[in-house]
Design goal:
Layout: H1 4-28, H2 41-52, H3 58-65, H4 69-81, E1 85-89, E2 97-101, H5 103-120, H6 129-143
Antiparallel strand pairs: 1-2
Helix pairs in contact: 2-5, 3-4
């Protein structure tokens, strides 16, 4: 008989693999408008986080993404070269550099959200509304630290206008 610790660890590992597969299937259909480079998940997450926190620094972004500060420097260099973000030196503390999403970055982020919405929709074919609501409750439980009662802004879905576009 398998011990409960081994089976729990295997269940969690299998669950994470299934989640990666589902997200990967949805993201595979996204056309980022860059035929040479394709879709970059961390870039999308970085834009999302920076749009929610207008005073974010590179080290804060590295912590949120779970990557090294050096990786974020490379990521921001590339995104700045594509005019998706810009670095702004803090007026009060010139050593501090804040990241801002440009208008081009906002448009790109909204484009990716629309594309992801289209490509992810088929993942829920055959699901009832009750099953989707249950899945949402479980994801909230997974995403939130213990003793937190609301989804943090950084995890919340972006606001949508009356025409369905992401704000």
């Amino acid at each position: 008989m398998e011990d409960s610790r081994g089976s729990r660890e295997q269940l969690i590992e299998d669950t994470l693999g299934l989640m990666r597969g589902a997200i990967g299937r949805a993201m595979a259909g996204i056309d980022p408008g860059r035929p040479k480079e394709g879709f970059r998940v961390l870039e999308h997450f970085a834009l999302h986080y920076m749009m929610h926190d207008r005073k974010m620094t590179q080290s804060e972004l590295a912590n949120l993404l779970g990557v090294s500060p050096g990786y974020v420097t490379t990521l921001i260099d590339r995104m700045e070269g594509e005019r998706l973000v810009k670095r702004i030196r803090d007026r009060r503390d010139r050593r501090k550099i804040q990241l801002r999403v440009t208008l081009t970055g906002h448009h790109f982020h909204h484009h990716l959200h629309r594309q992801f919405g289209v490509t992810a929709m088929p993942l829920f074919d055959g699901w009832t509304n009750e099953e989707i609501a249950t899945f949402q409750r479980l994801l909230r439980k997974l995403a939130m630290p213990p003793n937190v009662t609301a989804v943090p802004d950084l995890l919340a879905a972006p606001a949508r206008g009356t025409d369905g576009t992401v704000k």
